[in-house]
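Morning, I've got a small favour to ask if you have a moment. It would help a lot if you went through both lines with me. I owe you a coffee for this, so here goes:
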Amino acid sequence: MSSKNMANNRKVLISNLPQDTTSNEIIQELFESQNFKYSNINFDGSSAIVTLANINEAKRAAKLINGQLFKGTRIFVSEAPPPQTLTPSSSGSPLVLVGNLSFDFTEGQFKDLMSPHGEIKNVFLVRGKISKKSKGYGFVEYKHKESANKAKEHFIKTDAKFVDGRIIRVQTVSPSLTVGEAKHSRTLFVDKLPKLFEDEEQLTNVFSSTGTVTFCKVARTKQGQPRGYALIDYSTVLEAERAQEQLDGTQIDDTNIRISFCTPGKTAQEIFGKFDDP
């Protein structure tokens, strides 16, 4: 076993942490209180990776802390996935990424939505670094990969994919997408644009008020007609979060636009680069 793999086996991933959690609380209440030996914590506001003293300590933490109530919220702990090349889609994974959820959707509602398709090991919504609110997407880890594929197929159906008036998007993904910065998208989905709106320069100017826009494009049909939505990339995750928080509902040509987060894994530029009609 390489030294890199040995080091990673000492790490545990903690997800679904409450919004007001601090790194000191994680260490004191979850690890020091149970006499775990640790060396480091990497905390990003909604999840954390803790490096334990050895592999046995990591396994013990994953077993004892997983499912505990922490500040009134049930948290999930598992051995951290090894570093790997980001793979936005993986048909052999028991992990699914669910996008375009209502911002008001709770973890409980999320689990209820996805549990009919198989036994769930972990489930959590991704929360903003600034607001700590749900970003409208989350991850579900099933016990078996067949359940993940079943969930994906279920939400392809026209009558099943609408939840709270939104079209739910489900895809199987690599575990690496749940770790650290990878789970945060810097791409925004802007819909409810005015009819026939196609002025990308105007849209870029509006969104540049909160950060550096690196890509902006209005989606069009194969006939070249605007489809009423656009995708926008920012240079950083925090800029995208500020834009969603501050510009959602902004009026453009007498129409109030709606802004949601795209799921992580691909930027708008990559999406439009692969598909003419995303």
